[in-house]
Amino acid sequence: MNTRRNFLFSGAAAGAAAALTTAERASARSIRRDLDRASVGGAQPRDHRPVIVPSGSKAPMRDVDGAKVYHLVVEEFDHTFAPGLVARCWGFNEMVNGHVIEAVEGDRVRIYVTNKLPAPTSTHWHGLILPNGMDGVSGLTQPPIPPGETWLYEFDLRQNGTHMFHSHHDTMTQEGLGLTGMFVIHPADAGEPMVDRDFALMLHEWRIDAGARRPNPNEMSDFNVLTMNGKVFPFLDPLVVRKGQRVRMRIGNLSAMDHHPIHLHGYEFLETAVDGCRIPAEQQRRRVTTLVGVGETRDIEFDAVNVGDWAFHCHMTHHVMNQMGHAFPNMIGFDAKGFDSRARSLLPGYMTMGAKGMGDMTDMGMPLPENSVPMIKAKGGFGKDVSLGGMAGVLKVREGLSDEALEANRDPGWYEHPEGTVAGPASAEDRRRDGIVE
Q: What is the model's pTM?
């Protein structure tokens, strides 16, 4: 969502801000200029690739008297998790989860927070080393920000890495309704390897009953909508990469209760940072799944040498489904032959659900409850449903992508597999050759 906001200085509007895309470009240019000037302890300055936020946005930034100035508006709005599922949420600059502040180590930042909620709030800068009075804990390090007021946080960035920010007033309610974001701080020196594609992903979980118009932040265990950057699969923008590029995925988790093991298909990767702290090269672990705990961030890196459409997703199996609910009866193995026809004499249109599992339920043509996305409804490159939902996405690695396509993170469509490289029925000749007896 591109959001137009006014920066507020001393409580007065300082004029309309530029469109978000324009502000992001200006922010990237400014960060590059700062890196060109940067020198920490005699180290060489470095450039970087501005972070990419699939289905999300970056906070617009201005340079004012040597400081980077940001403005976060905290408010209520209708958020679309997927076509067919819209809920009233709370977020920063009309984004839940997928809003990112991007800066450089050593920057002086001034962050204005305008509270348009019906309740007080505050903003905590999760993992940052800063003066106590800027930590953003309501009642402990500051008074809460009353509705209708704009408050200022100002501090120097003394570290780099992947960090987060979120409300710290009535956190169960306010985080649960979407007041979370990521804070990406690029290093000022050339001490770590460069990457070509740098993606930010925020994990979150929600309880939204079918037909409901607002998430229930009081839920403690039965979460039924699982998202990355506020979107369920297949509505998260793909991560588009040119073959041979070095890729970083920054993954933060501000879910209410659940840790998430994020698994990437087709690749081994290195865990390169935990909670914004770079892991020494000799201690980096080669993995295919990284466990991102509640309140934690993980950076993973890999070289995109394997072309195709590769899934990445939480490996908690219920986290790649939506709104199924624990009250759904277990019908696995039930023989519905004859039963459905008898039941329809009492309930016209009745259809037994789940006797063969949930994977084929979208083919049944059943009407969905209002404002819900309980079924898997993503058509893949073979015209069949992709058996994923919830907390999942697609890494699309291609040869020959232009710089323009990469800058726009433009979806290249489904991968066209070379002949003979797609799994299919085994021929009788294959089975005879390999001694396969059925």
A: 0.81
